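Step 1: inspect the first sequence and its tokens.
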Amino acid sequence: MPALPPADGFAIAYGPITDAGEAVRQEEAAMRAARACLSPRLALVQPGMPALRLNSAGWLRVPAAAIAGLDDSRAMLAFAGVALRRRAPLFAAPLRAFLDDYVGFVAARVEDARAVLSERLARAGFDPGGALPHYRDWAFSALLPLPAAHVGWREEVGGPHGFVRCDAAFWTGRELLVVFLEGGSMPTPRERRARERLALLPQVRMLHAEREPGRGWTDGALAAALDGFWEDCELPFGLIRPAALRDGHWPR
């Protein structure tokens, strides 16, 4: 049985896994020893912890040379998009489409806010026309989607109802956004009851996304929840944030 997260905390196993409890058992001890909140298969979050972003350490483990060889922030964002798609189960075509839409949404929002973001660089003493930092680097401050997420919380981890499965989860630093894509498989009665209990937690917001003709998954209420990701970031960083500036540690 995996250890319980602390009060108000969540253990979120994600990616192409078959047993969420086993993923927690395999990852949790090492993460707690390192005071890490994020690995390629598990996120451990609780209120007061910073948001999980695309440039949060732990979810993406690649050689530094793979990042250094990318030409600019657009290439890095595309690289991140491929890495996210690989976290989707093999036959989860709607989830892969959602992740593609999300990366496109992030890129578009940064372009829409170019003037604002360039002005923020200028106020911080940087040349807005320079290569580093670049206004497009704010794309990596976007919230990190945890694809094919299994959300467990104190009352349920290891209990009779286990984890709540969802298409994606985002930790904003204030709440857990739990996303279900319309058209997915119908929940069993047990899963439905577990979802209802999860929805009652004050730190959780459940969102149902529907893809309409000519529109992406990330329109509507979901877009509003995921927008403005740069507002609480003083400066942009690339896909791999410098070690001295990493955050999101799990308290001892």
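Step 2: inspect the second sequence and its tokens, then contrast the two.
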Amino acid sequence: MTQKVIIFDFDGTIADTVEALVSIANRLAIEFDYIQITANELTLLRNLTSREIIRYSGVSLLKIPFLVKKVKSELKNKITELEPISGVKEALIELNQQGYSLGVITSNSHENVTEFLKFHNLNYLFEFIYSGVTIFGKTTIINNVLRQKQLKPQTVIYVGDETRDIEAAKKANIKVIAVSWGFNSPEALAKQNPDFLIHYPSELLDVVKHC
């Protein structure tokens, strides 16, 4: 039987970064000319797709790469203050013990992810970490990983908390597990028709077994 490879998003899926990212985004609002995110607006944004959020924010597409780079840089200063999503560490250890190969594909920086995993003694669980420089570039990264590691799409599962994760996995022809404990709401995720939608990390192992 071919070993299954489980690829995780990082922000909101493994690491509880939503509050920190909102705080950073609000500090950068004036510099990048968009409105700050209130509690009410965060609720609204959770129900939008990633593309709808960009349109809603009014941020110029030309500024987005610079904004993403600045956010990653500022998050670096907070990385050791962040905690794993409750229950995720146990789920990752269990998947590893069951013989699954684990990896990360993220739009965060490789340095941030590596430092977080080392700080929480999770780095030994992952065989690879790939970082992308664009918001909507995950399909390309997934395809590159499949090619470089000679993985068959039917053996790979992507786990993410945003609509763009579902979109990227589908374009790469791999199965996707959407998790409701991150950024996007369960309703927004469900509209994108993921293969599975789960609400607790403890559900991961059972779902993976049925993929």
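Step 3: confirm your contrast with the notes below.
The radius of gyration is 16 Å. Residues 72 and 185 are 23 Å apart (CA to CA).
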